[in-house]
Every structure is written in structure tokens, then in C-alpha cells.
Amino acid sequence: MEYEVKKGKKGFVSPIRRLVFPKAGRRAAFRTSVSRRPLHSMPLYPPDYLIDPQILLCDYLEKEVKFLGHLTWVTSSLNPSSRDELLQLLDTARQLKELPLKTTAEQDSILSLSARCLLLTWRDNEELILRIPTHEIAAASYLQDDALHLLVLKTGLGVDPVPAGVDASPG
């Protein structure tokens, strides 16, 4: 009984305990214990950030991104060049809890670009999220809203991107 009372009290914490068991240090040690492979990338230089087309034809390029979500209920009449429509769509999706309000480390993912397809995989376990062939991308839009840089892709009609965990082989 007396032990439970002492445990519930908040008061002086030993400086030695703070040095040996810091809360922030435990979190940082947990994050760094997961080793991540280096990305297959190359530097991009302003103002144009151009990539040699031969790299995309014969190879691929990877960039680390945060995956917010995949919206399947969007109508095909959405104008991807309209900033207002896209921001309104994002606000609606956040209100419906289909997109997160804040980005976290769990949303880290890898965007792989090549001339043939666009792959999106989780950063830690590299499970497939989406695979979209480039010929099925109808439009791409880039938005900068506050501190977020958003890439919105509109795929053609009848397109069914391969979600994670689904076998895409015929039959």
C-alpha cells in the first residue's frame, strides 16, 4: 500500500535518473535503431531541377516523400489545374478522416520514378502502396500550401492502381 502511494507522488527527480533514463533519448534511440537503405537518387539543381531522360528510360530515381492517402471517390470532372478545387478536395478528405491532419514518421515512403511506372512504397518495410503505369496518369498537379508540398495525381478513366497486398497478375 505504501509503495503505491509513493509511486503516485510527483516531486523531485534525481539528476542521475534524468541522465541515465532520459525520455527523449529513449525515443531517439528507438528511431535510429531502424536502419534505412540509401535512396537510389541524384542531386537536382535549381532553377529547373531537370533530370536526364536517359536516366528515366534506363534506370529509376527515388525520392523520400510522405504518403497522405489515396482517394478513390473523386469524380473525373475534377480540374487538376485549379488550386481552389484541389484544396477544397483536401479539406473535405481531412474532414471525412480519409487524410491525416498532420504528417508523422509512419507516413514516410519512397516515390520511385521511371519512364514506365511510378511506384510508391513504405520507407521502413518497403511494402508496395501503389503502382501506377505512366501511361495511365492523366494529370499531375503540384501545390504548395503552408509548409506542405503536395503532388496530386489524376489517373485516367477505368484505371485501377494496384494497392498494397493485392496480386496484379492476371487470372
UniProtKB/TrEMBL annotation:
GO terms for biological process: heart morphogenesis. InterPro entries: Malcavernin, PH-like_dom_sf. It comes from the Eukaryota. Belongs to the CCM2 family. This is Cerebral cavernous malformations 2 protein-like. It comes from Leptonychotes weddellii. The gene is LOC102738335.
